[in-house]
Amino acid sequence: LIGDTLCHSCLGSLLLPFNLQVALAVALNLRTFLRLQPHSNGQVCLNLPNIGIKRAWDVARLQLQDTSFLGKCSEKEPGERGAPGDTSAPPAELAEKLKEVVGLPEDCADPERAAVLTFLYLYLCICQKQRALPSLDITVWSELPPGAGLGSSAAYSVCMAAALLTACEGIPNPLWDGESTGRWTVEDLELINKWAFQGERMIHGNPSGVDNAVSTWAPPSRAHHGPSSPHRPPALKILLTNTKVPRSTKALVAGVRSRLLKFPEIVAPVLSSIEAISLECERTLGEMAAAPAPEHYLVLEELIDMNQHHLNALGVGHALLDQLCHVTRAHGLHSKLTGAGGGGCGITLLRPDLEPPEVEAVKQALRNCGFDCWETSIGAPGISVHAPASLDAAVRQALGGL
User: Fold this and answer.
1) Active-site entry in 9, 142, 153, 229
2) Locate the GHMP kinase C-terminal domain: which residues (predicted)?
3) Is 6 part of any domain?
4) Where are the alpha helices (DSSP H) in 291-355?
5) What is the CATH number of the domain that holds 149?
6) Largest CA distance in the chain
7) pTM listed for this prediction
8) Given the residues 13, 152, 188, 211, the one annotated as active site
9) Is 153 annotated in the active site?
10) Residues of the chain with pLDDT under 50
């Protein structure tokens, strides 16, 4: 089984979990791939080549551990086979108990701890109804830069949930003989999304659920109110640029909250304006899905500029993000931060009339600033399963030389 999913890019707005403003999240076409191989060596193995992690656990020892604190899968409805059960324990408490059960070292680095605990949580919960825990070899490789605010953890959780549910017969494998790609039914995708959200809770504690929803379904998703657009957006080409500036989402959100409390009559209208930008962006993407026109790109460029200025006013910008915007503007292009801001990544909209040498010149200018830069797109499909032969040679090699 090889699954793939994708991350989110907040095109319309910064996601602010303490207010009711709309943020529009769309899928970014940098993929995360998972290879699952059943075997009979009595071990469950996790290989994460992006961060240099390879760990294995004895299945028989895991089977003997008391994992009742994780809760039980529920079977409320036929379409919710193996759905996450109710548990009152907060994610941090579950993570600490799980660390004790599996013997995870205290000095384990944050990326490894988050990835390992998420995997073990999903493995032990989803596979608990098996007569015996299965022996598996799982490799996850991603085109996404980890820790850059691009939803890489959600892509990881969605892939892991889909693979384990399929391996443990919680959902059927949608790939038919002779096909190169398969996609699960709506009911199965709902179950994948529910479990992926639980995986995200192990990493982030109190996630919004937007990242895993976008990684599962891919059409634009709103947070925090109102229905999402029913239209899949056009495959807009973008540059994704990583400033390599580390940032803390928690600290940035706390800073905006503090500014709102200090200057409510100033900051509240800024937040309302950001919501209006998100709604206008959603409307424009809906029109483009039906009949794209050059005028739509002009509208999106204006919205991108306004959004970036608003986000700077909220205090989530950074000097290097400003530099990114300045460099691309010199080439007639428009950019904004994505994710939490404060560093991390920015996106640049590429109009369809741009020639390849023009795009390459912008990429080189950004690399000259010390940034990493990728040419990609938004508006791609969500989680799916692939036949190995349908994947690029580089992906097959990264997953173990398929």
Assistant:
1) 153
2) 302-367
3) no
4) 294-313, 319-329
5) 3.30.230.10
6) 64
7) 0.84
8) 211
9) yes
10) 7, 9, 12-19, 76-80, 225-230
